[in-house]
Amino acid sequence: MILKNRIRRTQEAMTQRELDLLLVVGRENLIYFTGLTQIECMAVLIPKEGEACAVTLWLDAAYVQQETGLITYGYLFPKETVASKVVQCIQKYGYDRPRIGFERYYVDFAMYDALRQAFDESNFYGAGDLFYKVRSIKDEQEISYIKEAAAIVCRGVDAAIKAVRPGVTELDLLAEAEYAMLKAGSTGSPFRPQVISGERTLLTHPCSSNKQINSGEIVIIHLGANYQGYCAKMCRTVALGKVPEEQVKVYQLLLEAQQRAIDALRPGVTAGSVDKAAREIIEAAGYQHHYLDYVGYGVGIRQSEFYPIIGKGRTEIIQAGMVVDLLLPTIYRPGIGGPRVTDVILVGDRSNEILTNYPRQLIQL
Questions:
Q1: Is the pLDDT of residue 53 over 80?
Q2: How far apart are the first and last CA of the chain?
Q3: Do residues 289 and 209 share a domain?
């Protein structure tokens, strides 16, 4: 029933876009429409009306149909490929000149070539934004998975914090965190996790390194966990020993901006208004030139879902059931580094719930 509801909502969105069919091949959307996380060599076709179907290797076809309830067609490799079988299935739907939407970043050349040989190329449309919008409202099952992932990532952050001391390396701390999360049930990080320290905290997407942690530095612990295909992430800042007063001031500023954004996050408002609530705090303190143009985005099967994007001037309407990550940016300024705090928030009808339930204050050791 859950999968059928997801397909029904998608078909409603397809009607608005005047699409006849959606081709699903990206792993994230396959998880969404099948509930299967161990997926290889597979596609799903969703018509604007009627039953969706799956295409997979013939050896897996019976299993996929049993687990998903989708009509499933198996292809015989190497005589057939997933692409050739997809073309056959599209033809079975009976459209003369079907308007086909697909995820432009996930369709490989073999699939695209098979489609353009069989159908009019002018009727191909990128539909990645449609998928993100449909996925932005989480059902109860999705929320339960994200909550579990959030509990797991809290364990990882806690393990890393307990291991912070002078002389250990960033990678030492990351190893403690990753081990704790795997033991708690995570199937791996949804992004490259980060434990960084000192001046390296100015970097936006760094790798953890063999740099030793020193007294008088801040340590950024930015981790993610995955449970049943769904993600949660969290970032905390540790001050080891006495750190510069401005670093403490900046962290308190970010914490205030985050709380303002959380308070502004409610059904019916625009994503831009949530960003503005946080941005006003940063601008009033004079740091606007060291700050990014967005403060958050959706979280779900991806750690960064691109609907909604909570940024300057964004017009997406916040709705109950969305799950977002706030507060993404830091204040990037040499000499200060980049103290950070971020949490996963569930938007409710009357109030929000911080799913990453871990103290948000600056952690001073």
A1: yes
A2: 50
A3: yes
Residues 113 and 152 in one domain: no
DSSP-assigned letters across all residues of 122-151: GGEEE-HHHHHHHHTS--HHHHHHHHHHHH
**pLDDT tens, residue by residue, 158-192:** 999 999 999 999 999 999 999 999 999 999 999 99
CATH number, domain of 96, equals 3.40.350.10
Give the global pTM: 0.94
| Tens-place pLDDT, residues 23-52 | 999 999 999 999 999 888 899 999 999 999
CA distance 123 to 6: 24
Q: Is residue 244 located within the same domain as residue 359?
A: yes
User: Domain range spanning residue 39?
Assistant: 2-135
Distance CA 312, CA 189 (A): 29
Q: What is the dihedral of CA 46, 47, 52, 54, to 10 degrees?
A: -50
Q: What's the number of domains the chain is made of? A: 2
